[in-house]
Amino acid sequence: MKQFLFVFLATFIINCLSGQALNKYGQITGNPSKYVSKNGAIGSTGLSENGKVIPFTGSSNNALDMDGGNDYVSLPAGPYFNGNFTIECWIFPKSFPSYARIIDFSNGMGINGIILAYTMGTTRIPYLHIEGAQFPANKAIPLNQWTHIAATLSGNTATIYINGIAAGTASTPTPAKLTRNICYIGKSSWPDPNANALFDELRIWNMAKTQAEIQSSMNTELAGNEPGLVAYYNFNQGTAGGTNTAITSLFDKTVNGYDGTLNNFTLTGVTSNWVNGAPINDGTSASSAAKSAYAIKQAFPASANGYYWIKNPNINGGVPFQIYADMTTDGGGWTLIMCNASNAGWNYTNAILLNPTSPSVNSNYSIIGWADYIKKSASGFQYMIDANTRKSNGGIWTANDAYTFLKPDNTQTNITLNTKFGTWTYNDGGIEERMPWYSNCSGYITTSVQCDGGSWWGTLISNAGWTPAPWISSGCGVEGCMQNPDIIWYWVR
Q1: Within this chain, do residues 135 and 266 fall inside the same structural domain, yes or no?
Q2: Distance CA 387, CA 403 (A)
Q3: Cβ atoms of 258 and 250 closer than 8 Å
Q4: 1 or 100: which carries more pLDDT confidence?
Q5: pLDDT tens across 62-120, in order?
Q6: Which of 17, 47, 145, 447 counts the most CB atoms within 10 A of its CB?
Q7: Which pLDDT does position 352 carry in this prediction?
Q8: Which segments of 222-362 does DSSP mark as H helices, in order?
């Protein structure tokens, strides 16, 4: 009987879901409004995460728009504060209702209150209130523009920061160590109007972060497990501007589970709904520099080909710099690490670092020397090469071991050709089956078993005599050979 029921159930599921599949969010591809729930049932929420049901996020960088009416988020009671703290949030004011709150945690009007507001009165000046003592920042914030506001308490010294810069300090009480039962985002426990603003990246810490610490993470999304993080709301839920009426909670990404409840939001259209978020790590400016083109593409799937900013403490002294990114080929996320458009000017030294802060897709450029810090992982990362025209005479490979872009010998051969651009085949007179290596002979960057002598085809940068380097002479495909391709590109993700 059990076997019969099992076969019947399997047949039923196959018939119901024939031609359909699940994506990484648990979404059924044939019916994108349905998902697999935490119990394996099909519904309108997403897969569970740490035991919580999460919705499919149409964008991974959203914010929550509060329309200045009766929208707000209520949070559960809890001991959010017990001494030193940091509160931080990205805020986009659409107006400045009197004393409009970022957060308001208390046990009633004037009782154990901890308040961070984005305007004191209607002055546009943020202020912090700790159990009866309050003080304003020393500067105003702009209308209709994203601003990062943080407030810290260290002992009895409170500081407000605007865009990572200290903007006022005062002496305040230390908050009582107790449970606060009335906790709001965007709403006051006093008879003040609700916020009319967009909210993103709200964080509460049980430590007083320094200015440098605030600056180091304010443009970066968190994992949720950082030491000292009490509550973290990244607002990455719903579909920006879409119909999100099934979403009634704001998720806390920490293990503390301080999930909020959305109150009075319409959850459709461009206000009172999930909307596009603050420019966190989108790479569009030095202040929002990301780790790599791959990181940008993962966080912002709609990113287009073009120039972006990235940063790494091991590259360029930690100063953000520009790169060119291919955001479309094979899912995108490629950082250009070399363009060879002319044989002239190359040498052993600059083959791995040439014009590093001036990326170009049509003139000589190399950041091969930085590629090991840009790749997504020590092993399993991918590299791409194309020549003459994009997506021609090359391919996409995976490095199956912990390989380096600066290998001084020809031994990195455990690679997999994932996608071939053309119909060429591996050959001693063309591209060879190894990751390009770094040599101090004729072929500075080459796939050839030898970098000099009789045959060093499959070379990306050479020292003389080619346009711009000897590429494919044998093992040619139906598209023909490509001895002098005029231009060669090299990418990593």
Answers
A1: yes
A2: 23
A3: no
A4: 100
A5: 999 999 999 999 999 999 999 999 999 999 999 999 999 999 999 999 999 999 999 99
A6: 447
A7: 98
A8: 293-299
| 211 and 235 part of one domain | yes
Supply the range of the domain harboring residue 232: 63-276
429 and 342, same domain (yes or no) = yes
Model confidence pLDDT, tens digit, residues 315-353: 999 899 999 999 999 999 999 999 999 999 999 999 999
Distance CA 378, CA 299 (A): 21
Distances (CA, A) of 32 to 25, 35, 86: 10, 8, 40
Residues 267 and 291 in one domain: no
Q: What is the largest CA-CA distance in the chain?
A: 85
Region for residue 112 given its phi and psi (left: phi exceeds 0; alpha: psi -120 to 50; beta: otherwise)? left
Are both 272 and 154 inside the same structural domain?
yes
Q: Are residues 37 and 79 in the same domain?
A: no
Structure tokens at 319: 């100063």
Q: Report the alpha-carbon distance of residue 397 to residue 435 in Å, rounded.
A: 8
Tokens describing residue 7: 């076969």
Give the separation between CA 129 and CA 391, rounded to whole angstroms.
58
Q: Do residues 334 and 448 both lie within one domain?
A: yes
